[in-house]
Amino acid sequence: MRSGILLYGPPAAGKDTVTTALAALDARYVPFRRLKVGSGKSAGYRMGTAAQLADLEVSGDVIYRNERYGNVYVVDRPGLDKAFESGMVPVVHLGQVAGVEQVAALSGVRWVCVLLWCSRTSTAERSRRRGDTDTTARLAAWDATREDLASYPQAGWEVQVDTGAVTPQEAAQQIDAFVRSAAPQP
């Protein structure tokens, strides 16, 4: 069975940083680059067009899509299939519980659901430090994530990490330890 990690959390909770630490810990961990239709930051995404998105929707290959910051972000079946090649463990970043639920429901994959959290103040500070020009929108997204989180049972998170209290390397070690303990034994 294939394995993957779903990292859920508000903006600036450390999803990119923890994913980098996971990849440094074990090369099997690879960031899943969601398809992004829109503008702005392109690093970490596969930039696409509205026509590509329409084709994915017609073929039933959109697993989850959301709109935020004036863009569309997509977890797609062909992208995930490619990410799973050669026994890799994709790390998918999500900011909505609906996304966690829809991706986790994908058959044939053992997903580890991880809640990365940080305070609203940390989101503001981190957003400013990394040079975001839309910190206000990211704080609104933090608020929406907090409300969204209330709809998901705490037991649904197999690993919970306060990124304001641990280093990215410690967070990666916690996640890796759980992934290894949850892996099917031969």
UniProtKB/TrEMBL annotation:
Name of the featured protein: Guanylate kinase
SUPFAM superfamilies tied to this protein: P-loop containing nucleoside triphosphate hydrolases
GO molecular function: kinase activity
Keyword flag Transferase: yes
Domain of life: Bacteria
Keywords: Kinase, Transferase
